[in-house]
């Protein structure tokens, strides 16, 4: 039996935009995570004495400030070279955008597939043929797999490809192809990259997205790592996920429906964070807490949101010290009161609610048009992060109106001291 590792979307030294605006954020630890995860992958390869490592694109994250990023990768690959482990890489869309990559010499055990046409690398002693093609430019709209070489008989054929396949939410449509088309190619294993969530698309033959090596923000939650592939008697027998991430992003959803006050909501949030810490298996946790539900605690939560959030952050420190960071706390609860009845009142409250509700009926695309001119006056970094108000996203603007409505309800129904 032999084993090999399939990884993709390492995004080495990803800048993690948006972290700087969080006071007290463990910026350096999170930015170092992609390097540490790559080191963990190399450790895994050495410990398992794998036959090879496949990298299916987006090794880097676009342009570097200097050669340090590339030198770190080269040093890690040299560790594999000393163990006689070859590495095969295709460049993805982010790699193609990098201006320094072509000038960086790589260790002799690393083979980067060319971009002008697909080609094949043979490992005769292992009975393996690897087929691949790199991106020549950031945007590739054609189906690269269609021109991959025919499988070589009596060998285990592996296709290395950076692709969106037949489309995945949140990912640009690059080098599109279909599972049926990949199956028809006749390969034994398709090592895909570009999609950051692990997915086994097919098992006969195997078509696998390993997901990215390390989550980089709250939209990349859960275990991250690579795929360990086992080969027995010339056939793929298993493909299992191996966790190598060092920072675990988690989304803690708290349903406050049955909570009668903010203390009960606080305890529910702490229990959810405890579960997140337990799931992380000793890793640092970057968590977002989101409180929802129709609850009697709604008014107090919204009126004293800052105080409640600070209480939660203080309690979180006791849970896991510096290894638990609350990336954001969101309160999206609803009042127990009958909003429709309140809207029918002939007073200021009824008028305000009717006005906001009418705004909610407006197509979100109209709001985008309204804010079009504003966007040109905002800083360049605006909109690059999940944390900025997405004024070009109709859904985000519609959701914001809902939050405004709930905040008005809590303030007008119970306008007590906000301290």
Protein described:
The chain is α/β, with parallel strands linked by helices and 419 residues long. It has helices at residues 27-31, 33-48, 68-82, 93-96, 179-184, 262-279, 298-303, 305-320, 339-343, 348-360, 364-370, 372-375, 394-413, and strands spanning 2-7, 53-56, 87-90, 110-112, 119-123, 128-132, 156-162, 189-193, 199-203, 206-209, 225-232, 235-243, 247-255, 284-294, 324-334. The chain has a 6-stranded mixed β-sheet. Strands 5-6-7-8-10-9 form a 6-stranded mixed β-sheet. Strands 13-14-15 form a 3-stranded parallel β-sheet. The longest helix is centred in the last third of the chain and has 20 residues, at 394-413. The chain is elongated.
What's the short version?
The chain is built from 13 helices and 15 strands.
Question: Which architecture of the largest domain per CATH?
Answer: 4-Layer Sandwich
Q: Pick out the low-confidence regions.
A: none
| Helix-strand makeup class | alpha/beta
Number of helices: 13
CATH class of the largest domain: Alpha Beta
Q: Whole-Å distance between the termini?
A: 66 Å
Helix content: 25-40%
CATH topology of the largest domain: Purple Acid Phosphatase, chain A, domain 2
Radius of gyration: 25 Å
CATH superfamily of the largest domain: Metallo-dependent phosphatases
